[in-house]
């Protein structure tokens, strides 16, 4: 095992789930690429004693500790102060830094057209400019400077203090990596590869049986499996020396699960985007129960405007008829939640947007709207393209949010099977 | 301070960000309502030594420890075993429990129509049925049983072991609360209130000045402020005895920020949904750059079909014209990203869906597509309703994901200001 890092994410808003942390995972992936394994991400609120004990916990087993958040101008933003105390370093206002932050705040307020209370701004600015003695300042990207704080006694890991807003943290990252105490840790890092196999339609217990069977050939691999939204991911981390063992794992999975192995790397979003891109095809959507999440997922990718002309979310039957040409008679005889309407939605999306591929989704997300023969969770999907038609009907367990997420993933696999073949959605 | 709890979320897929943790925040909120303050959420991968040290860290300062995940049938699912070891309790297979799990797995496989390898299933089942001596079994909701494990020596907190899938964890929660060791902790809990004030258009530094000014009147309040997507949240936790102090905080915020105070509780989604519901109005969307995220956010709420007939995502100019009636001449003269097109999108959404309110969004999410006079981040929004028209034009900083998220929030505030007045979006 090479060098390791631990991450503290601060903020009561993260701890209580009002804000979803994006920094822990982003930092973990950046560090992994640099060969630093992340053992723990700790989320703490805005209490100094909790941050202090988190730093102690992570310092015990890691070569580098990183914090995100708590660098704002309000009194609950305490990270710089607490890290300084933890590292045994007195903090003081860096007057030149305070001036630089002040200039940034003035520009920002002017751009937003907000009135500024100069005195309030100045107090906040001076708070943000407090720097522990001997710490390296990372210049602000937003208004908050970051820090690299070496331990006071020369033992323990250096602590990298980064701002909470993901855009600021990411923009500051290169400066953090360039700091001498961080470089010294990176010099001890070893390459750590990560590769992923993806199955669609294999239960986790069968995969477990295969892994047990070939276990003695897999030394040096750290394998984790994760079933979500019907997709079984096998993620393996390994040093380059274990490359042959990884190949044996791939061979075993191919041999036992060739029929459900959809990818030896890229996720289904990438498979679909690449298939559309390489064949110059476009796709349009017509959704009811997923309410725009399918088209939003397709459009998540930069450049999606080249292959997604658009989509319609048609919750009401009137919208299904008028915007997508679904037949009133079909709605009257088999109902909106039916394979027939899914097909007409797909056809409608395709023709209204002039797209090569159309996909239709109709179902009951709940909690209301179910009936004995069409329970909550019932959903029908259909994708139509130049090469044919694929369909899927199922009942998705779980709540409204789980239903929508799972159904969107099934929709992505429907497009994948239409464009690339492989296991049916 | 009353009783406290700490949470461990296990799983390399969470640690590396492939899966977003929903359990930590959910558990934190449930525990808060029961009067148990959550100090830390720790995310660890699937390594036993990391889970063990996380348990030690959390046990040192908490009255209750909870874990989620790591109860599956594969070899990397180690939580039950490690918790048993940590609490000094030997684990052994509970044969009757193994039979019950086996029956569940058989039913599940049959329903999915998956072929089952009986031997593989049995090994996984027996692994899932290993129970530390003296632990209480929480009956499986999916296939994995939960556990309540008392400490071996009578000191240290009990550990509640819960499954990773949020639906299973939530369904198992009442059984966990009913367990005697958990009830004993809850008996020591004290009521902990949480209330939220929301400002739209006030910089954090000005709020900080107000909080400093009235600081001596706010004893007993734990105040955190969080600026995101332009919204400034003030979340306060306090014991009932500090109710008068909370009222003083509300008065101070009302006095200083009456013009930007949009809510003394509900979030903007609730404000908009309630305003539509109480007036019996419907809303339809026409989005380009936000790609369906606005309509998806409106539809996130159960029952949304009553007030959202649907929306159109029109990425291409052709779709804007044909599906929403945007004028070809407007597109040719001022371009798709313009206040004029935002207005026509809003009108088009309103008329095509026969909705009372229409909202249009057009902008450049990036990374491509910008120009000197319309840089990446440029966006125009317009909402039209029975009482008038509101608009907003701005340049949003940050990457594609940040742009879309922020723009959707501005769209929600545009609807809020159209329906309820208050500070402009």
TrEMBL record, chains A, B:
InterPro entries: CinA (IPR050101), CinA-like_C (IPR036653), CinA_C (IPR008136), Competence-induced_CinA (IPR008135), MoaB/Mog-like_dom_sf (IPR036425), MoaB/Mog_dom (IPR001453). Residues 6-184 form the MoaB/Mog domain. It holds the Pfam family CinA. Belongs to the CinA family. This is CinA-like protein. It comes from Klenkia terrae. The lineage of its organism: Bacteria, Bacillati, Actinomycetota, Actinomycetes, Geodermatophilales.
């Amino acid at each position: 095992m090479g060098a390791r890092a631990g991450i503290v994410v601060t903020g009561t808003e993260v701890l209580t789930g009002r804000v979803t942390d994006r920094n822990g995972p982003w930092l973990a992936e950046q560090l992994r690429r640099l060969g630093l394994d992340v053992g723990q991400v700790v989320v703490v609120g805005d209490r100094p004693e909790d941050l202090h004990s988190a730093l102690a916990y992570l310092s015990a087993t890691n070569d580098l500790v990183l914090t995100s958040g708590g660098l704002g101008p309000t009194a609950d933003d305490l990270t710089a102060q607490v890290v300084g105390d933890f590292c045994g370093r007195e903090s003081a206002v860096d007057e030149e830094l305070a001036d630089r932050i002040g200039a940034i705040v003035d520009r920002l307020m002017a751009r937003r057209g907000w009135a500024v209370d100069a005195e309030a701004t100045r107090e906040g600015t001076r708070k943000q400019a407090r720097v522990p003695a001997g710490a390296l300042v990372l210049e602000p990207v937003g208004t908050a400077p970051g820090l690299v704080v070496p331990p006071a006694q020369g033992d323990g890991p250096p602590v990298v203090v980064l701002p909470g807003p993901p855009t600021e943290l990411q923009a500051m990252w290169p400066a953090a990596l360039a700091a001498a105490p961080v470089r010294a840790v990176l010099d001890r890092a070893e390459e750590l590869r990560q590769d992923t196999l993806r199955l669609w339609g294999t239960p986790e217990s069968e995969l477990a049986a295969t892994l047990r069977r070939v276990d003695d050939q897999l030394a040096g691999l750290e394998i984790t499996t994760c079933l979500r939204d019907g997709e079984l991911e096998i993620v393996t981390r390994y040093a380059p020396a274990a490359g042959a063992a990884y190949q044996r794992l791939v061979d075993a999975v191919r041999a036992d699960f060739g029929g459900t192995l959809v990818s030896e790397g890229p996720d289904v979003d990438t498979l679909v985007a690449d298939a559309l891109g390489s064949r110059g095809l476009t796709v349009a959507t017509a959704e009811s129960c997923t309410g725009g999440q399918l088209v939003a997922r397709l459009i998540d990718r930069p450049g999606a405007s080249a292959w997604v002309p658009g989509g319609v979310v048609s919750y009401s039957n009137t919208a299904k008829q008028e915007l997508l040409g679904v037949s009133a008679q079909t709605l009257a005889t088999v109902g909106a939640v039916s394979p027939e309407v899914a097909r007409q939605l797909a056809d409608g999306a395709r023709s209204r947007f002039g797209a090569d591929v159309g996909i239709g989704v109709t179902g009951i997300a709940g909690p209301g709207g179910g009936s004995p023969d069409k329970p909550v969770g019932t959903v029908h999907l259909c994708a139509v393209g130049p090469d044919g038609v694929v369909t899927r009907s199922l009942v998705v367990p779980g709540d409204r949010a789980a239903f929508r997420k799972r159904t969107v993933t099934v929709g992505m696999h429907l497009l994948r099977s239409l464009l690339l073949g492989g296991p049916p959605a």
